[in-house]
Fold these 3 entries.
Entry 1:
Amino acid sequence: MLTKTLLPALAALFSLTSAQNYPDQSAPFSLKISDAADASLNNKYLYACHSGAAIEQLCLGDKAEHADAYSTYYHNTSEWSSGTGTLVWNLPYSDGIASSGLTFAYNPASNVVLSYFIPGDSNAVRIGFNEENKLFVPAYIDDVLTPGGEKPFYNWEVCTTQFSGYRYQALAWVTVGTPVTGSWGCVSVNVTKEAI
Ligand SMILES: *[C@@H]1O[C@H](CO)[C@@H](O)[C@H](O)[C@H]1NC(C)=O
Ligand SMILES: *[C@@H]1O[C@H](CO)[C@@H](O)[C@H](O)[C@H]1NC(C)=O
């Protein structure tokens, strides 16, 4: 299989090239859906689902269905990052792991952004958790304010996604407004950290 040979190569590449921006790793946790506009999604968990060589999305599942997939995540931060940093998942391969950061795939024609893990943190999105353990993305809303215009956003949606040929019910992000037509069945949600 292609991935068997590709993964160690990729992992080696990323560990060689990456000086991690956020080297301080948290205790492990799982990620759970809350505040869903469709209440049947609440209390489902997010597991890493294969979406291409060394790429995983965050798919929706029940704990009982995917016991081993109840993916363990970490929050990498740094001394200076005020509690924000990278959401990390460890991609297993034959003799080790490739630490992979959550990354956004922006689409110029849509306000729906797909999210996926890929080894390294070179394009990882910066995230944080609030006092209720809810996952947020800090962003600037006003370029006129310098500095300090940053605030937490919670624009998570669970959508039927189509990413490099894989179709899943997976975690996405909406930049502004409601998801544009063409994004299937998006439901707004929050994502909550749960200690393992
Ligand atoms: C997260 O932190 C650990 C511990 O320093 C490091 O080994 C790993 O490469 C980091 N992962 C990312 C994606 O930055
Ligand atoms: C997610 O949590 C934030 C912060 O508590 C809240 O403002 C937002 O309305 C929540 N999202 C949903 C879909 O309820």
Note: The longest strand covers residues 96-105.
Entry 2:
Amino acid sequence: MSRDGVDDIVRAAEDLAQRLPQPLSPLATLAFNYAWTWSPGGSDLFRSIDPARFGRTRQNPVRLLQEVPAATLARLAQDREFVERAETLAAGLRTELDRPADLERSSGDGPVAFFCAEFGVHSSLPIYAGGLGVLAGDLLKEASDRALPMVGVGLMYTQGYFHQRLDRHGWQHEYWVETDAERLPAALVTREDGTPLTITVPIRGRDVLVQVWRVDVGRVPLFLLDTELPGNGIIERWITARLYIGDRSTRLSQYALLGVGGVRALRAMGIEPSVIHLNEGHAAFAPLALAGDEVAAGHDPQEALAAARERTVFTTHTPVPAGNETFEAKEVLETLGDLARSLDPDTIVGLGRSGPDDLNGIGMTTLGLRLSRSANGVSRRHGEVARRMWRPLFGGAAEEEVPIEHITNGVHLPSWMAPPMRELLDRHLGNGWERRAPDAAVWEAAERIPDEEVWAVRNEMRSDLVDYLRRKTALDLLGRGAAEDDVREAFEEFDPHALTVGFARRVATYKRLYLLTYDSDRALRILMGPPPVQLFLAGKAHPRDEEAKGVLQNLFGLGRTARVASRVAYLEDYDIAMAARLVGGCDVWVNLPRRPLEASGTSGMKAALNGGLNLSVLDGWWAEAYDGVNGWAVDGSESQDPSEQDGADSTAFYDLLEREVLPLFYDRDETGIPRGWVRRVKTSLRTAGSTFTTARTLGEYVERVYRPPTVVSAP
Ligand SMILES: *Cc1c(COP(=O)(O)O)cnc(C)c1O
């Protein structure tokens, strides 16, 4: 019997099936594997059971099936067509799970264990904050698609990340929502005797009891550690309460739990990973735990650390020095306790500091870099920045010799391409085009799709988005206690034919959302038209970042300027489900980071996969994607003076919008088609589809990072 929880998922699905009429039992199997989220027809199947309830449960199919009235189930059991759809999808899932693993291209004996503090798999599993988590989720899905042996390791946060509410003045307030893990598509991993598997992780001198949830993401299990157990004290139970919790010492406990607990949990389940992939520094204690086990078995600490390093690979995502967290050495040593003592505290302190004079303490990224056999940034430009930034760690090596490479991020195409676009390409690109997407020939066929069809799909998607914007705006207004007339007016707002510009991302200072209104007169003039333009904004500010909250409030105010109120909206509580809506129907996706602080960015790739065009500063992924036709670049003078740079970039942005974007969008031929625009859409699709997907990204990890090193480097 396997100990990795695979049977526990089967049992949970069987329990759920008990509640369903027999013909509907395939639904229970489907509900316990997130593969439905990217299988064509999966969302439609569950939504059609009870659309309102599906929405209310954040599209959680387990809760949906637990809560849906018996009469509905009885009716569906009689519906041949519905039952057949469920059976077909369940058969597809079975085939997928039974496919042999691709061992040839994998990393060796065991799976890759992918460690991350957050995973953005789906809106019903709220254990992510933003880009890092969504990337992690996308990579698990891609590993499943290519039958690569991989397991994910993370934490089950009972309250997840904060939700955002904006008051009438546009000020952000935060609140947290409890998730009942029992009602998720997840199962506690149990022992042979049926009791939950628990491990203990020593944190700050206490043995913290940990249980492990299994979530199936296609073929890939995601294991989530949880301290919410009666055997733990209230402080220990709080460790897995909130993602990126504000209190630093609790956050350090989370990192110890993820790194040390993650390694122990895998061992307890009998999983022996060939490679441990630390996706960002939060999990950097994992190689210490690997080494600690070797020392406990009688090996020399230095050799044990060297062996752990040979099994560990690291990806850094943070080009902002302040984003790379450090903790006081004393605190880290206390938190790790016996593990630190067994490996020698001085050694650990040495590994975590950039040099003997470094008084900043132990850096999580520094540890990650020192304890891994390979390291990479997440775009070409970020690779350069990371080499420059971390050069001091490598004994004064020349910048180009610093051993940090880059693998540019990508997004999971089947998860992010909306159905209308996917169906269009299905009709024109031939069977299995998704798997051939990295092949340029696929996209030559896309160039031949008649402009009329591409434009019709774009109109359909914009129209869907406008419906969503109207409903969402009305709901946000109701939540703020707006007058009924204002709410009714919200349904008149937004035009399904107007150029739709979107800007949705974390409201961090370096993302420079304020550039949109840097020259507010000019911004208003453009927004008032003609020609018609509409703008939506979304994104959360960090709860403690008052400056960012001020920026957010300013932008919110723009939407309340009477003259453009019907054309601008700030949408509350950006998340993965909202992102899917926005990137689907948006014509122009804007990104204006301060160079070079955008490591990669991925939302622009999602927009491009749906036929949206990027208008972005040449930073992160866009610096290597932009080809002069597939969108627009805010380029030009680089200044050392931030406010000078802001002025230049905002002018360049308004100029592009006014002189290039708007005229091209409204330049229609006699049949009403903007030929020039459609040409750019096709080019942008080709760029994103061929290069900026996880198919390419994971392929690079497999070839360049996960493979066992063939050359043994000199010590
Ligand atoms: C894709 C995505 C991101 C990443 O966006 P960038 O601003 O491009 O880094 C963040 N949040 C959510 C919900 C996403 O889906």
Note: The chain has a mean pLDDT of 94.
Entry 3:
Amino acid sequence: MLQRTQRLIAGKQMPSQARKPKGDLAIDGGTSVRSSTLPYGRQSVSESDIASVVAVLRGDWLTTGPHVGEFEDKFSTVVGASHSVAFSSGTAALHAAMFSLGIKPGDEVIVPALSFAASANCILYCGGTPVFCDVTPADLLIDCDEVERKINSRTKAILVVDYAGHPCNYQKLSAIATKHKLPLVADSCHGLGGTDQGKKLGSLADLTAFSFHPVKHITTGEGGMVSTSNPELAKRLKQFRNHGITTEFRERHEKGLLSYDMIELGFNYRLSDIQCALGSSQLSRLPQFLERRRHIAKQYSEKLVGFSGLAPLSVRVGVEHAFHLYVIRLDPSCWSVSRDQFLKALRAEGIGANLHYQPIYWHSYYEKKLGFKRGLCPNSEAAYENILSLPIFADMSDQDVDDVVTALGKLSDAYLL
Ligand SMILES: *Cc1c(COP(=O)(O)O)cnc(C)c1O
């Protein structure tokens, strides 16, 4: 194994001042590959992003102003939808998606087990029941055959997740949804910029939710969006984010309307003009962000070919992956340590690798309060034991990528059987 690390370090991908193999792992008291930790994800904020925010602060409308609609329209163009409605977070966007479909107590919504808790929490917010569906081992995307097996008379929607930025199989999913007359909802919080068969995420489901948290493709600090091509759903989404009131403040201001009517129990889930201006500016940088993420993923994939005992997830032919995450899987039979020990050792080297995700129903709330039992989705559970996410974000340098590979090499030398 030492030989391979030396080869990697001597290889042309390493700059001339490349670090020598340290031998001892940082976790055992050796010198770490990096002196400061490389995060798994972070925002890229430019001077022009900052200027666009400052301009709003000098204007009249800090919220419910013109920047909201501008951001929404721009976003619709980017994702190929006819309507986009901005929300205060990706979670609020998912809640709104479930509300707009009328999910209520007694209704079941099918959702993959391997995702962020918000993917299923949004069903609970509406009183609905999440029905956890397993993922396929190769790509950790929802298992379409199992989706169909879980459909019954109580099923009211199918919610899928473009895990890591890898688009689900929308051809299959749309066929299932159409056949059973069910709405298809996409949690594309990882997927902005991804495509399936040349079609953009945002145009492939009845409702698609996005997040603008700082680790996602573009950021507004906190923020989210739902895209749809259904005008009725768009109207319900807009009312929901504004307390269930039928008109917005600026509209009443401009039309001289004196009163308003609240027709649903909505929330204040608005995204401010300050945030929308940042979102518009970030959105114009999305092509570069995607290019950089894909380039980093390509470098990882090329460099990891030389490693045994670990491999990236597979990518389906016909998709363009958005690479929110770069997930690798350890083969437990190849390593002398557990995934947790491996992750700890990697972090000690200054590589901020992370875990995405524990099966949702393993969380205490789902297990203890709602009574979900372990064993429900064996592929999700097995995957969780062996996966980890390597750092990937737009401002990550080639040297940063090399540091990750160097750290993996050190761990291989120490822990590969
Ligand atoms: C980030 C994320 C969310 C929630 O988005 P927030 O903007 O953080 O509320 C939901 N689902 C998935 C899969 C996510 O990664």
Note: DSSP finds 15 helices and 13 strands in the chain.
